[in-house]
Write a structure and sequence with these properties.
Layout (H helix, E strand, L loop, with lengths): L1 H19 L1 H20 L4 H30 L3 H33 L4
Helix pairs in contact: 1-2, 1-3, 2-3, 3-4
């Protein structure tokens, strides 16, 4: 569900970012991200867990292009610093995605007593 949400969110929020601006899009992305995490944390069935994963996937895919375009002009003055920060951002993005997957699996196993 996370991947499906990422596909939908990537297309939707890239469109919104180009039409309404990156700053507004980043602020709007907090809504599905917050509700997604709340749904994951309070899930009582598989459908609620999947809906939360879908929302967090949408938000994660929307953050990537919006943040890159929003921060690139401020970092472009120092080439090496720019490259370093892009690498750090990518590592942080991928590692947080993996942590998210592990925590979701743990929540799923706890809610349904499968461990």
């Amino acid at each position: 569900m996370y991947g499906l949400g990422a596909v939908v969110g990537g297309v939707l929020f890239t469109y919104l970012s180009s039409n309404y601006g990156q700053r507004k899009t980043i602020l709007c992305l907090a809504v599905p991200d917050l509700f997604g995490w709340i749904m994951i944390g309070l899930s009582s069935n598989v459908a609620m867990l999947c809906a939360g994963r879908f929302l967090t996937g949408m938000a994660a895919a929307g953050y990537v292009p919006a943040i890159q375009v929003y921060f690139t002009p401020t970092l472009i003055t120092k080439k090496h610093q720019n490259q370093f920060l892009i690498v750090i951002k990518e590592i942080t993005t991928y590692s947080s995605s993996e942590i998210n997957s592990v925590l979701t699996l743990h929540t799923f196993l706890q809610n349904f007593n499968l461990n």
